[in-house]
Amino acid sequence: MKKEELTFTPKNCWDVYAAAKDRKAMDVLAARYMEFLSVCKTEREVVDYVVEKARAAGFEESAAADRQLRVFRGKNVLLARRGKEPLSKGSRLIGAHADSPRLDFKQHPLYEECGVGLAKTHYYGGIRKHQWLAAPLALHGVVVKKSGEAVRVVIGEDPADPVFTVPDLLPHLAQKQMERKLSEAFEAEKLNVVLAHEPPAAAKGKAGDADRDADKEKDKGADASPLKRRILEMLNERYGIVEEDLYSAELQAVPAGPARWVGLDRALMGGYGHDDRICVFCALEAMLVGAAPRHAQLALFWDKEEIGSEGATGAKSRFFEYGVQDLAAAWDPEARLSEIFLEMRAVSADVSAAMDPDYQDLHDKLNASLIGCGPCFNKFTGHRGKYAANDADAEYVAWMRAVLDKAGAPWQMAELGKVDLGGGGTVAKHLAEYGMRIIDFGPAVLSMHSPFELASKADLYATVKAYAAFLAA
Ligand code: MN
Ligand code: MN
Prior knowledge:
The chain has 2 domains: 13-100 and 272-472, Zn peptidases (Aminopeptidase); 102-255, Aminopeptidase i, Domain 2 (Roll). It is 29% helix and 23% strand. It has 13 helices and 21 strands. The longest helix has 20 residues, at 20-39. One manganese (II) ion (MN) is lined by residues 275, 306, 449.
């Protein structure tokens, strides 16, 4: 190791990766990421993408394989690569989450008012409600019929598709609303998505009319919601579903359209769900490269992080434990599960809040992360007096520093914001329960949880490098 510098300044990734070869690789990686972010807008879509890429890289759904892939309920996936050392002599794990805040359709979504057909929503995760108004939305999800058949829904992404929207109040009539507290001004029950407008009679002459007229005749007098009926007819034509099927549906209204380059230099990436799909993508990229590793490598992608890691597919579930149990049985049958967990080293790969140029006062500048300065460690998360934090021990932070510096990978160290101003948690504390060493480590983003989050192309590149260095260490 070189003689150490007396003072530490985070390195800017644009300087670290100034070489033409790095810039070229950065562009190729970023283009692939933008494509991924544009297409994968639900946890299920992310899992499908991961499975496709992993299979192509030789991962199999077989307990005997050296490269394994295990999917759970279409919403979790565990990837594992066997190392030269036994599992109980240490392994490397990167965990990230595939869900993002959005507007979920309620189970009874459809109704009509004032000449428009709408869907009621129930927001998922921490959204700032006003950011979801008066913007084009797409509908992604799954409807499962009684037969068990799962119908995939994606409307609003193809340029030829229609989009949907939650209308906002005009300023002329918003005077009372503007006097209210922001937390009270926007009501969850008003986050309703416009789905249709043309009533069935006016739609006469269009496809499917003969059937519709026959149905109408049958329901004469009982049909007080012609627009709702029209919506159901269109869904039935397109997907073969009926109203009752919506009870067993997971339909998510998400920002419509592809991720976009931001800035004259196209150096920033704007899109929905960088939190935490950028970490999923970087972990996957890092996982699929390199020769047979010394220590086993694991990547784990969850659902439900945005609502507290609950449920069978969240990080509090036992899916991961069961997966490691099976890996142990195949790769290191003599080992005790506790040995394996205690020797595991992990990264909770989640995004950090970059210092916002317009709200710098909310950050402690000495302990804030900057976009473009590489993935950011949060030694601890939580809020107030470090409540509900995973706090990585100093020994582990030192080891991580050494790993990254040896690989020449830039990184920074920060907290989420000023103490007592807010806070947040990640999956780290749930994994820490196993006694493994774990720390939060991921790129810093701007506009986190908004429909159009910003991440740096250079951070994306740096994060893949850093995760690869960690996995190989
Ligand atoms: Mn996150
Ligand atoms: Mn989040």
